[in-house]
Design a protein that fits this description.
Blueprint lengths: L23 H8 L7 H17 L4 H21 L4 E5 L9 H8 L4 E6 L2 H10 L5 E5 L5 H6 L1 H6 L7 E5 L11 H11 L5 E7 L5 H13 L11 H5 L6 E2 L21 H4 L24 E7 L2
Parallel strand pairs: 1-2, 1-4, 2-3, 4-5
Antiparallel strand pairs: 5-7, 6-7
Helix pairs in contact: 1-2, 2-9
């Protein structure tokens, strides 16, 4: 896929929230049936779905829901490996089953830092995801030194102990010229042995023409980020310096599906708190269509 310059600049002073053009985080929020989106985002999301139906590729809404269940399984797996610290990079708008909600079901003292550059994400995350052992930071993950050196991060996370570095559905929002591989390496080098790297990334392996069409749509509609699908080999490069855990780099539906136990709302489980998952998800089709857009995996630093 060509490495073209971004179609839209960072939000302007007269448009600080970037409301003139579609925003990837808000489009994803719409696909998850959230309310933190605007008409420009809904039109963009619907355009992607219409195009997907026309060319016969998986719907983004299916992929979004499946991605949230993947996040739950990954966090549960990491907890099982003894991880108690999570650095969630490019975390996106608060939605169903966020990282700290998943972790705190069984490990209330697990520590989570959410990082995102989007001002709307930052403000909503601060309001909705506050609590003990949880912090949010507005910062650019493309600047690892700033993130790693920020007092918010240092106050919550102990970099002498293993950390889970999480890039869930975000690295495909970076251009090749921004060297996302170097970004991941810098975070890798900052954490000790026993730390883990969790990634879910759009791929062009299954539907190359569809991947190109979606990429082009992000450019035509001036999304705030591209959606750069990459090959298996390119995605594997992110795990340099990590030992890939079983089952390796696979589609979300294939990544430890036996851990799949969708979160119920707090009202259902009797705890009386805020719901962790508000969306009732139908059973997957046999085709697991939503999975075909992504490859995912977890690696451990020796």
């Amino acid at each position: 896929m060509p490495d073209l310059p971004p179609a839209a600049a960072e939000p302007e002073s007269r448009d600080p929230l970037g409301l003139r053009f579609p925003n990837t985080a808000r489009v994803w929020n719409y696909h998850l049936r959230g309310k933190d989106n605007f008409e420009v985002d809904r039109r963009a999301a619907q355009a992607v779905e219409e195009m997907s139906v026309k060319i016969g590729v998986p719907l983004a809404a299916d992929t979004a829901v499946e991605g949230r269940h993947l996040l739950q399984r990954m966090v549960d797996y990491l907890l099982g490996q003894g991880i108690r610290q999570f650095l969630d990079l490019g975390s996106g708008l608060p939605s169903m089953a966020n990282t700290h909600q998943i972790a705190h079901r069984t490990v209330p003292d697990a520590r989570v830092v959410y990082v995102d550059i989007d001002p709307m994400v930052s403000s909503h995350a601060s309001a909705r995801m506050a609590g003990a052992n949880v912090a949010t930071l507005r910062a650019d993950l493309r600047e690892p030194e700033r993130v790693l050196g920020d007092p918010v991060v240092r106050d919550v996370l102990d970099f002498e102990q293993p950390v889970a570095i999480m890039f869930i559905c975000v690295l495909h929002c970076l251009w090749d010229k921004e060297d996302p591989w170097a970004v991941v390496r810098r975070f890798r080098d900052a954490v000790p042995s026993g730390s883990h790297l969790a990634i879910s990334h759009m791929t062009n392996e299954i539907h190359p023409q569809g991947a190109q069409a979606i990429f082009q749509m992000t450019q035509d509609l001036h999304w705030n980020t591209p959606l750069v699908s990459r090959s298996r080999a390119e995605i594997m490069r992110f795990f340099d310096g990590f030992d890939l855990a079983e089952p390796g780099l696979v589609s979300p539906a294939q990544w430890r599906p036996y851990l799949d136990n969708p979160l119920r709302s707090a009202q259902e489980d009797g705890s009386g708190g805020a719901p962790a998952l508000r969306l009732v998800v139908p059973e997957r089709s046999k085709e697991d269509r939503g999975a075909e857009w992504h490859l995912c995996g977890i690696g451990v630093k020796p």
